[in-house]
Amino acid sequence: LLQLEVEELKEKNAESQRNIENLQTENEQLKNEHRNWQEHIRSLLGKFDNV
To answer: Taking the C-alpha atoms of 29, 34, 40 and 45 in order, what is their torsion angle to the nearest 10 degrees?
Structure first.
């Protein structure tokens, strides 16, 4: 029974690890998207200044 619980916890741990990796990847993508939007907005504001 104890061995079964250990295996179950190992599976949950592996699943949690996959979730962490997925969230880290998504976080990086969102950071890049955010950076791109900031640059785009900065560029647009610069154009307004030139008008």
So the answer is: -170
Amino acid identity of 3? Q
pLDDT tens column, 13-41: 999 999 999 999 999 999 999 999 999 99
DSSP string, 4-34: HHHHHHHHHHHHHHHHHHHHHHHHHHHHHHH
How many CA atoms lie within 13 Å of 29's alpha carbon, on the beta-carbon side? 6
Residue 17 has phi, psi (to 5 degrees) of: -60, -40
Token couple for 46? 């610069």
